[in-house]
Description:
This protein is mostly helical. It has helices at about 1-5, 15-25, 30-35, 40-60, 60-85, 90-105, 105-110, 120-135, 150-165, 175-195, 195-215, 220-245, 255-270. It starts with a helix and ends with a helix.
Amino acid sequence: MADDALIHNPKGGMPRLLEIMRRLRDPDTGCPWDIEQDFSTIAPYTIEEAYEVADAIDREAWDELKGELGDLLFQSVFHAQMASEKGLFDFNDVADTMSDKMVARHPHVFGDESRDKSADQQTRDWETIKAAERAGKAQKGTLDGVAIGLPALLRALKLQKRAARVGFDWPDTSHVIDKIVEEAKELEEARDTLTETEIAEEFGDLLFVMVNLGRHLGLDPESALRATNAKFTRRFEKVEEKLADRGKIPSQSTLEEMDALWDEVKSDEKNRK
């Protein structure tokens, strides 16, 4: 009964959520779907929830953000509960591990180091500490520890940052742009002469160097592409609205008509700025 009181307490906070998760996974009285899940089946939901948090922030949908953060927190609770059942660790271990990491990585806040340093210097110090942590885990290679499961754009960025730390990097953006031109030409040639697999490889090379250009410009490629996706969605929806005013849907239009409407939408946006 005490557990039921906690579950139905609207101010129960973290203990309430942990108890709800425990009950959902109870093999005798829990939810059949939750009971059947394992780390691998829940992982895709974890990734999805992280993107929904980012989406709410991009849209400045602050009323939604609380709920999206809750969804993401629930993913951590779910994984921790499954780990606890296997005798691996529990949620408190997760929290303690993160607390230990933050204290160790901020000696200028929680230790004896001076706080009189720039954000850039702190970033360099952070990377030095992380490199020492990787060495302690027997991760000797420069690229060791960059998670394979990351989104491709993010993983490309992290791989390039790691390589740049040891001097494997172009000195300025002009060299990167030259490489983009080179890779674009190779892709164009591949399109007409090579196999689909080889064309995909050349396309990947071009994407990789585009990520590198973003890094040199101080841009996050994932955020930039998300913004462009949002812009494309917004503009195409406006094209559909203009077509609807003409009694049409896109499949009843032509590329020339939709392209002209697209230009109108772009012009309207520029005029409002």
